[in-house]
Design goal:
By secondary structure, the chain is an alpha/beta fold. It folds into two domains: 4-147, Rossmann fold (3-Layer(aba) Sandwich); 151-371, Rossmann fold (3-Layer(aba) Sandwich). It is 42% helix and 20% strand. It has a seven-stranded parallel β-sheet, with helices on both faces. It has a five-stranded parallel β-sheet with strand order 2-1-3-4-5, with helices on both faces. Strands 10-11 form a two-stranded antiparallel ribbon.
Amino acid sequence: MGKTRVVVVDDSALVRGLLTEIINRQPDMTCVGAASDPFVAREMIRNLDPDVITLDVEMPRMDGIDFLAKLMRLRPMPVVMVSTLTERGAEVTLRALELGAIDFVAKPKIGVADGLRQLAEDITEKIRTASKAHVRRLPPAAAGAATGAAGGAASAAAQGVRAAAPMAGMGRLSTEKIIFIGASTGGTEATKEVLMNLPHDAPAVMITQHMPPGFTRSYATRLDGLCRIRVKEAVDGDRVLPGHAYIAPGGMHLSVERSGANYLARVRDGEPVNRHKPSVEVLFDSAARVVGPNAVAVMLTGMGADGAKAMKAMRDAGSWNVCQDEQSCVVFGMPREAIAQGAAHEVLPLQRIAAALIERLRSTVGAAMHRV
């Protein structure tokens, strides 16, 4: 197989040079072009036909988000965003993921040269992952909605949804259960798809999404403005409540603990597990030990095997587990490994997972009432 061909798009000559150097040091990839703005990039993509592009968020003449929306509508291809570690950088990066970017790299605000060199392994691994990812064409309506979305309007809409009556035909759900979700590459949008289709009275949800520090709070706020359930970045000691979702903070491990009749979220520092912090393995392992048959597990799109063994331990402890299928995954790594471990009861397209969870939770209530 030939080398992965990469075009770098960044208005900073320093960053273009560093990324080119990092890419060209890899035996399996080559930087075939470096563009200073989207107009130059457009011609390079047309003439060089790269496999992956890295795209800066903030650039002159046309920002990265507008360019990405046009690209994913007209010529879909794997894109890795290069973002800044700021609150605005996080918001814009999340919009880029909505538009179809495969992943992102967060460059530091100061010491960019040293910071990017330290991130070289992360950058090249994300390019490798992107080169194998499933890319989908963005519909024109989705492009307009994603680039023009206003957080305040979304939040107001969500408040109206939360105040509305429960979903038609829902029936009672088993709220003593806890739903555990693990995800990585492509998982921000996959998790959003699941959460947006849960009713406001769903059981508690605990989520580990591979994401660096500085981004998970914005991600949780964004989801909170879109979902019927409340969504927040987990804080150590949070009581795990129905109708709420708790997202592992970037750079910290999330687990669950029992305290009397209550479940609590535990947020702890520690060594990376399976090269990740937060790690799905940590969350799912605690679910197997502490929650047992009251757990429901979901493994969504992502590269690698993080959480696969612990998901099997959850099944052995009595949980009910579902994995996303290959066709709907951006990257089929984590679900494939969990399936290989024998962890999955069902393998489903992303669009059917929330309905399957609801049906399972409804049937659990029925079984409990029958036993009584």
